[in-house]
Amino acid sequence: MPIVICIVDDEDELVLNLKLEISALRPQWEIITFSDGMQAMQEIIKGRVNLVVTDIAMPDMDGYELFWRVKDYDDKIPVIMMTGFGYDANHVLVRAKVDGLKDVLFKPFDTEKLVELIDARLAP
Known about the structure:
Blueprint: E1 4-8, H1 12-25, E2 30-34, H2 37-45, E3 51-55, H3 63-73, E4 79-83, H4 92-98, E5 103-106, H5 111-122
Parallel strand pairs: 1-2, 1-3, 3-4, 4-5
Helix pairs in contact: 2-3
């Protein structure tokens, strides 16, 4: 069964570029993408997703809420958050770290760094 990485961000171009770049580095991975957390959660509940990469600031369901829902569904699924903001006015990162978030990447970031992080989180 292939490793399935779920990427969630409302910036379509960023999601497309990440999918292409990650697929070039790890062609054996299946990369699925969503522009909102609700659609992603529907796929996660199907039980195929091994890891979630999500933006923090999104309409409807932000990355923190998605993180919380993923952890509520299956706390073994690693979640990596991305943000374009250095300062977190709502302290979302602080709340998420208290709740168990281990990884945050600040945009722009090197895709190879993200892939290394994913490798580390998926290691047995």
